[in-house]
Amino acid sequence: MMMNIKINDGFTAIYEYVKKQKPLIHHLTNYVTAGDCANIALCFGASPIMADAAEEISEITASADALVLNLGTMNKVKFASMELAAVRARKKGIPIVIDPVGVMASDMRFEAAREIIRGGVSIVRGNYAECQTLLLETRRGKGVDSLVACQSEIGHLAEMAAQKYGCVFAVTGKEDAISDGKNTIIGSNGVEMLTKVTGTGCMTTTLIGCAAAASKDYLLSALCGIQTMNVAAEKAFMELKDTEGPGTFKTRLLDAVYLLSAEELAKMSKLREL
User: Fold this and answer.
1) Residues 60-69: pLDDT tens digits?
2) How far apart are CA 28 and CA 247, in angstroms?
3) Is a pLDDT exceeding 60 seen at residue 71?
C-alpha cells in the first residue's frame, strides 16, 4: 500500500517546525560520535547541548525540548546520569529517544537498555539486531553491527517491539520500519555509503530527537528524522565524484541536511504502509 498523503504532509510539517523553532536537544551520547551528532542537529535547525555530569543533569534536562540517550560508550557513571535525566524528562513530559547501540554485545548494555525503555521512552531507534535483541530478550550478534535482516520481517519486528514496550520503534537498515504498534511505515530511501561512515545511526537518532521535540506524534517524528537522513544521503551521494569517498560524503551529508527543503523531502521520500 502506498503512503497516505496526509502522513507525508505530517512529517514535512514537523520538518518545517524544527527549522523555525530551533528546539534544544539534550544528548547523553557516546564520545565516538558526539561531535557528529551536535553538528547534524545544528544543520537540521536545532540547538544541541551535551552534558552528563550528575550535578547538573536534572537542571539541564528540564530546560530541553527532547532528550536523546545513546548507549554507545556506556559505563556506570554515565548510566546513572542517564537515569537521572530520564526521570526528570518523564516528570516534565519531555520526549525521550534512546539508541540501544550494541545492546546484543554485553549484559550491561542489555540490562541498561531494558531498564530505561521499561521506565518509559517515546522512541527507540536501532538496527535490526539491536531491536531483535530487545524484542526476544536474547542477545544475538557481536559488536554494534546489524545482522542481515529479512526484509519481509522488518516491519513485523518493529510492530511487535512497539507493542511489547509501548513506544515507537524505528528499525533502520537497507529498508527502515517505523511502528507505534498499530501503524507501520516502511521506508526505502538511503544509500550504502551511509554504512561506510561511523555514526550515521547515531546521527539519525539525533534527527529523530529533533523531530520529537516538534511533535508528540512520535510515529511521524521518527519518520521525519529517518527520512531527513536518508534523503539527504541520496542527495550527498549524487554529488560525489569518482575520486571521492566516505570522507567527502560525510561533509556533503551535513551540507545536504542543512540545505534540504521540505518540498524535496516530500518529493524524494519512498514510503509505504505495511
Assistant:
1) 999 999 999 9
2) 25
3) yes
Model pTM greater than 0.70? yes
Distance CA 87, CA 188 (A): 35
- Read off the DSSP letter of residue 130: H
Q: Give 53: exposed, middle or buried? Use CB within 10 Å, 0-12, 13-18, 19+.
A: exposed
Backbone angles phi, psi at 261, to 5 degrees: -105, 160
Q: Which long-range contacts (CB under 8 A, 24 or more apart) does 31-38 make?
A: 31/73, 32/72, 32/73, 32/198, 32/199, 32/202, 33/70, 33/72, 33/198, 33/199, 33/202, 33/203, 36/199, 36/202, 36/203, 36/250, 37/68, 37/70, 37/199, 37/202, 37/203, 37/205, 37/206
Domain-wise residue ranges, the chain: 5-273
The cell numbers describing 37, all together, are 551528532
| Residue carrying C-alpha cell 513485523 | 156
Beta bridge partners of 27: 50, 68
Chain length of the chain: 274
Residues 6 or more apart whose Cβ sits within 8 Å of residue 202: 29, 30, 32, 33, 36, 37, 70, 72, 99, 101
Residue whose entry in the numeric block shows the C-alpha cell 542477545: 139
- On whether the CB atoms of residues 261 and 45 are closer than 8 A, the answer is no
Q: Which CATH number fits domain 5-273: 3.40.1190.20, 3.40.50.360, 3.40.50.300, 1.10.10.10?
A: 3.40.1190.20
Judged by DSSP in three states, 168 sits in: strand
User: Alpha-carbon torsion 62, 67, 69, 70, what sign?
Assistant: negative
